[in-house]
Amino acid sequence: MKRISSVAAAAALLASIVTGQTAFAADPIKIGVPVGLSGANSVVAPSVVQSAQLAVDEINAKGGILGRQVSLEVADDGSGAAGAQKAFDSLIFDKKVNALISMETSAARNAGLPIVSRGKVPFIYTSFYEGRSCNRYMYVDAWVPDQQVAPIVDYFMKDKHAKTFFLIGSDYAFGRGMLDFTKSYIEKKGGKVVGNEYLPMDGSDWTPIISKLQAAKPDAIITSTAGGAPNVTLTKQLRAAGVKLPYGNLAVDEGTAKSMGADAEGIYISGSYVTNIDTPANHQFLAAMQKRFGADLKTPNDLSVPEYEAIYLYKAAVEKAGSFDTAKVIPALAQVSFDGPRGTIRMDKQRHTPLTMYLGQVQADGSVKVIGSFKNVDPGDQCPSLK
């Protein structure tokens, strides 16, 4: 009888495998991380991957998600549209990931979203961006212009007595979207934009634009470039040209600022994360990152910390849904929260999240001195048609 039962059981198992009905509990849950390991985002991408690795390590050490371990599938999107199409397609249809969680350039995000829709995979976008990008499968746990622009502009007008502004950006969705919003806000507050110039995302010679800046003689400069390399080249050339105006950068993160060295000193930034946030949760996170990566640690920043938190948000949504099924996870993402380094993150405002924002200035050692903080800033009207 035992032999017959064993044969029957084996036959049943084989049949279920052939029909695709068996899911082994040991099979890992796959989280896809399409990110710019090359191209404009290559300066910051390693820190994003490290944050993802820490989150997965911690989750796996505590039993995984619904009893299943988690693995990362990292793909280079080249920081642009063509690379993103390949990366998204490979992760969704070849690797068959359960979710996509990552920061990317807006060009990469926009190119990948149709593939997300086709694959019906949850996507948590963890990059600050120009706002109002909406998709039934996407949530965002990073800031938008409605949360980020006002602290810098208001400070320049009030404390630096700036009335005229010169705007410089990378010529793509993020650069133009951020500066369009900034221009409108400056004019609404009674200021004037005396220059608004762009360079292609992969451009590196800012000399003609800097000449226009110097001729316009503004009171302050605000920039919005692709995160990473363009920040480095623009800032270096501004410093070499002797530009000493109040300088607000809408795209630089703390990690990139540290990589700039002395060139970054004095830059004003506005964001939802800086390493010197004095809370137990942030201290615990930083200690865990240092222990995990040691001398190889990349500075945690406003592009990498949302990645860490988003993986936990996905975990919470799956556990609330009691399933990895996309149709159940998507609504659950708006109902869960995670207490992370930035505080409590809940993506319930039209698939975006209220955030505490910080106005800071980069110091000589690359750290950011916080000048002011603004609690629970609402993201504004982002995706009213999505429920």
Describe the structure.
With 387 residues, the chain is α/β, with parallel strands linked by helices. The protein has 2 domains: 29-143 and 277-355, Response regulator (Rossmann fold, 3-Layer(aba) Sandwich); 145-271, Response regulator (Rossmann fold). It is built from 12 helices and 14 strands. The chain has helices at residues 2-18, 45-61, 81-94, 106-119, 145-159, 173-188, 207-216, 229-240, 254-260, 280-293, 305-321, 326-332; strands at residues 29-35, 70-76, 99-102, 123-125, 138-140, 164-170, 192-199, 220-224, 247-249, 268-271, 338-340, 343-345, 355-362, 368-377. The strands form 4 sheets. The protein has a 5-stranded parallel beta sheet with strand order 2-1-3-4-5, sandwiched between helices. A hairpin with a 5-residue loop joins strand 13 and strand 14. The model is unreliable at 1-24 (pLDDT under 50). Residues 1-25 form the signal peptide.
Would you summarize the structure shown here?
With 387 residues, this protein is of the alpha/beta class.
Strand line-up of the largest beta sheet: 2-1-3-4-5
Shape: globular
Please give the radius of gyration in angstroms: 22 Å
What would you call the structural class? alpha/beta
| N-to-C SSE string, H for helix and E for strand | HEHEHEHEEHEHEHEHEHEHHHEEEE
Number of separate helices: 12
Distance between the termini: 56 Å
Number of domains: 2
The CATH superfamily of the largest domain bears the name: Response regulator
Name of the CATH class of the largest domain? Alpha Beta
Given as residue ranges, the uncertain stretches (5+ residues, pLDDT < 50) are: 1-24
Total strand segments = 14
Please give the largest β-sheet: 5 strands, parallel
Helix content: 40-55%
CATH topology of the largest domain: Rossmann fold
Give the averaged pLDDT, no decimals: 92
Quote the beta fraction. Answer: 15-25%
| CATH 2nd-level architecture of the largest domain | 3-Layer(aba) Sandwich
Protein name: Amino acid/amide ABC transporter substrate-binding protein (HAAT family)
Signal peptide: 1-25
Keywords: Signal
Family: Belongs to the leucine-binding protein family.
